[in-house]
UniProtKB/TrEMBL annotation:
This is ACOXL protein. It comes from the Eukaryota. Gene3D superfamilies: Butyryl-CoA Dehydrogenase, subunit A, domain 2 (2.40.110.10), Butyryl-CoA Dehydrogenase, subunit A, domain 3 (1.20.140.10). GO terms for molecular function: acyl-CoA oxidase activity; FAD binding; fatty acid binding. InterPro entries: Acyl-CoA_Oxase/DH_mid-dom_sf, Acyl-CoA_oxidase, AcylCo_DH-like_C, AcylCoA_DH/oxidase_NM_dom_sf. GO terms for biological process: fatty acid beta-oxidation using acyl-CoA oxidase; lipid homeostasis. The gene is ACOXL. Signal peptide: none annotated. It comes from Symbiodinium pilosum (Dinoflagellate). GO terms for cellular component: peroxisome.
Length: 472
């Protein structure tokens, strides 16, 4: 697993590839093959070996037109269990019931031989939640069309895919964790939903390889930024500028430039250390076939959001400070679309931030938890000087307490106006505005700092990183 992450770093260093090959690789080997290895039965994993030997390409179909960045939270595509005969043989009918249910932005979707599609499993008119199905992309009823020309990355095909009552065999459902089992009772056949664990598979299990994809994206952004820094630093050290009528000095030695270069170096060092730790934890969980903890999922979200955001800001900072060099073809500031792609791929950063904040709110849903939060804030305020991660914890707790107060006040106001609980909650969430993202950002920064400092020990970089986060 760690070799897989390393391979993405190698590709991120090859600017000429424009990241398209890296996307194809993570789609096929991570999302397609990795999901079959994680969720497939022994027979399905054996099929994968044969498919690899035959050179067949795969794609992964999750994102839908109606869901957009809320992919995974909203899945309209349905796979309905249907009986094929009176002998107890059945299969699935895969269907896009509306235009909004069409799969969209499917990388490698036009050329893939097979695909994995995430759809609602429906048995006896009851949805069992999102599950993954293996489909032959040449099956009757599957329509594929190009998304159209993009501003960049046209070496990668992106498809819009829809399903018109596509007939799938029972073996299409990835069945390591669950299956549909025919049962004869009375005078009829019945379909039973069987899961191997204590509960049906969660979306974290279903979309497990989206998490490894997020780490690949974070790694690529940081590796890309390392290349930008190296070229920028070399230029700044060799570019001499006048400081008065008699003296010149390297651009890199000017205070503002030196500060900018140092901040990027510090951020890169801390983010690289954090990604290495999180990737190791993820690899251990995969190798031991363990269910991923919610805390690890949060760490991965923090890595995805903060590493990409750091790279975007650092690129803008360095480009601003090198002057006209930033316009030259020899500079590393040509197309930064790769970072924009990193921001919304495998989970839009804003959506991941909302997930992190909602988890924090759920953890403080009881009065006892809120009281402890108030007590922590009060203690930190009374103690005065705070050190290390305590500073970031205090800032996060302050913002979280403020958010909880705004949500409670707005929910109370909405309920008095006669809104339903669901309407009241969503309206209060919208009214909270940027504070939702501020809480998530501070929490992510605190997790990054405390993880690196706690497991690698305090360093000059972690102290400087904390100061950068507080002043951000």
């Amino acid at each position: 697993m760690l070799d897989f992450f390393a391979s993405h770093r190698v590709l991120a260093q090859q600017e000429c590839l424009s990241c398209c090959l890296g996307i194809r690789m993570t789609v096929h080997y991570n999302l397609f093959c990795g999901t079959i290895l994680a969720l497939g039965s022994e027979e399905q994993r054996n099929w994968l070996q044969d498919a690899q030997s035959a050179g067949l390409l795969g794609c992964f179909m999750l994102t839908e037109t109606g869901a957009g960045v809320l992919s995974g939270l909203i899945v309209e595509t349905v796979a309905t269990w249907v009986w094929l005969d009176d002998e107890g043989r059945g299969g699935f009918e895969l269907h896009s019931p509306t235009q909004s249910a069409e799969k969209t932005w499917i990388s490698q979707g036009l050329v893939a031989d097979y695909g994995l599609v995430v759809a609602q499993l429906v048995i006896n008119q009851r949805s069992m939640g999102a599950h993954v199905f293996l489909v032959d992309m040449q099956s009757p009823g599957i329509s594929r069309e190009c998304m159209g020309e993009k501003t960049n990355f046209n070496a990668l095909d992106n498809a819009r895919v829809s399903f018109d009552r596509v007939q799938l065999p029972a073996s299409a459902l990835l069945s390591k964790l669950c299956n549909v089992q025919p049962r004869w009772s009375g005078d009829n056949w019945h379909a039973d939903y069987i899961h191997t664990g204590k509960r049906p598979p969660t979306f974290i299990q279903t979309g497990q390889r989206l998490l490894s994809g997020r780490m690949c994206i974070s790694d690529s952004a940081i590796t890309y930024m390392e290349g930008v820094l190296a070229v920028t630093k070399k230029y700044a050290e060799g570019r001499f500028v006048w400081v008065d009528k008699e003296r010149k000095m390297p651009l890199a030695d000017l205070p503002y430039m030196a500060k900018g270069l140092e901040s990027v170096e510090v951020g890169l060092a801390v983010h690289k250390a954090f990604l290495s730790l999180v990737q190791s934890d993820f690899a251990k969980a995969i190798e031991t076939d363990s269910e991923l903890s919610r805390s690890l999922v949060t760490l991965i979200a923090a890595a995805k959001v903060e590493a990409v955001d750091f790279a975007i800001k650092s690129l803008a900072l360095l480009r601003r400070d090198v002057g006209s060099f930033g316009l030259m073809a020899a500079s590393p500031f040509g197309s930064s679309d790769i970072l924009l792609c990193c921001r919304f791929a495998e989970g839009d950063s804003r959506v991941l931030q909302q997930m992190v904040t909602r988890d924090l709110i759920r953890a403080h849903s009881k009065f006892s938890a809120i009281f402890r939060l108030i007590w922590r804030v009060l203690q930190a305020w009374l103690s005065g000087a705070l050190h290390g991660s305590a500073k970031l914890r205090y800032l996060r707790d302050q913002r979280l307490l403020q958010l909880l107060w705004i949500l409670a006040k707005q929910q109370w106001k909405n309920r008095r106006q006669g809104l339903s609980k669901a309407q009241s909650d969503s309206d209060a969430w919208l009214q909270a505005g940027e504070l939702v993202y501020d809480v998530a950002k501070t929490h992510a920064q605190q997790l990054i700092h405390s993880t690196v400092e706690g497991r690698c020990g305090p360093s000059v970089e972690t102290v400087r990183f904390m100061d950068m986060c507080i002043s951000d």
